[in-house]
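Quarterly update from the structural biology core.
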Amino acid sequence: MGRSPFYTSGRTGLRYQDEWKAITFGRIEMSFHVYILHCADGSYYTGHTDNLENRMAGHQSGEYKGYTSTRLPVQLLWSQECATRLEALSAEQQIKGWSRKKKEAMMRGDWKAVRQIAWGTNNPLPEKLQ
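Predicted structure, tokenized:
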């Protein structure tokens, strides 16, 4: 008899086998991602997930009703792996508060520009931050 696709655990809240990555020493290890999508209307959407591939498929199919479903197609521009869901959620919330310019600098890896934008365009960066 085949293995059930369901993995039930009241303690972890996981429902499906594909929601977990590996079980090591009785602990479930998962990876989480924060990501930025480029929408068809030119806007950016920032989110987080524990399965980037499935989340992208859901966004592309319009499965997730809301912001991206009315701005298809979407393209993944940037993602970063996080150790915990809380870390991914925190990064998502922080990035959502950033300007478009600051998000673009981060996606380019231009950390000097990110610092300058955060500091303000009318204020020169302190020498220790340059």
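Helices lie at 52-61, 85-96, 100-108, 111-119.
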